Amino acid sequence: MKKEAPQVDKNNTVISIEGLEKSFGSLQVLKSLNLQVYKGENMVLLGRSGTGKSVLIKIIVGLMYPDRGSVKVLGQEVDKLDTKEMDAFRLKIGFSFQGSALYDSMTVRENLEFPLIKNKRDLDSREVNKAIEGVLSDVGLLKTIDQWPSELSGGQKKRVGIARTLILRPEIMLYDEPTSGLDPASSLEIIKLINEVQQKYHTSSIIITHDLTCAKFTGERIAVLLNGTIERLGSFDEVFDTDDPDIMSFYNYNFINES
Q: Rounded to whole angstroms, how far apart are CA atoms 7 and 203?
């Protein structure tokens, strides 16, 4: 599997986290965590369950607040935003949920129409239809436009979920276990789609995954979250060029290595 070289601007940091700390009672989840994501970059976040990956993402989008440290996203201090500023800020962030989070009572068209009409009320019906058909075409599922979520495969649901996120043209994409629960062929389709989204929509992304195939073929850099902080950071090969048993334990996962 080959990936086109993305246009990563290392002089433009879209997510900057410095000295981040977060505790719940006596349990310290994040400890002096530092991380930067560049414009146009896919950053993969690896970590075992309970290591704070979800907490970190919630802090990035303002659903939780840090105890200490600085979190800047698109130049804004997230925990300093008021309600109106937060609403505008979140429109710039796309979140692809692990379970796709589609409304079962809505068709694919209606699932995509809902966030568009809610957030861009000045669009007429022609513009709405054009936007819906455009993103569905981009994820290869235009033919499903009038189907119900229950009629879709797991991989199709993931792709529709990504399309629904893309319809608002976010600057940053957050993917939560994008290949979880999928067969190998469907997983490879999602991996290719993540890279296509990066190229076509010029997004910067954080990809939470346990799937080393996904990590290797989507991420420019891999960040390994252990003991509440980033223990390793670099390319896939750089991260796993170590004898550290905590890092190498991730290699117990099988991944598909296609040329």
A: 10
Contact residues for 124 (Cβ-Cβ < 8 A; gap 6+): none
Per DSSP, helices labelled H in the chain are 53-60, 83-90, 108-119, 125-138, 154-166, 184-201, 212-218, 236-239, 245-248
Counting every residue written for the chain, the total comes to 259
Cβ contacts of 148 within 8 Å, gap of 6 or more: 104, 106, 107, 108
CA distance linking residue 14 with residue 138, whole number of Å: 25
Series of mean pLDDT values for 10-residue runs along the chain (259 residues): 82 97 94 96 89 90 94 96 94 82 92 89 87 94 95 92 93 92 91 94 93 93 93 94 86 52
User: Is there a contact between 9 and 40 (Cβ–Cβ < 8 Å)?
Assistant: yes
Alpha-carbon distances of 202 from 3, 88, 195, 196, rounded to whole Å: 15, 20, 10, 9
Amino acid 146: pLDDT: 95
Output phi, psi for 163, to 5 deg: -60, -40
The pLDDT value given to residue 1: 72
105 contacts: CB under 8 Å, gap ≥ 6: none
d(CA 8, CA 122) in angstroms, rounded, equals 33
User: What was the pLDDT predicted at 20?
Assistant: 97
**pLDDT attached to residue 252:** 63
Question: What is the pTM assigned to this prediction?
Answer: 0.90
Paired tokens of 96: 């692809």
Record the tokens describing residue 118, joined without a space. Answer: 């809610």
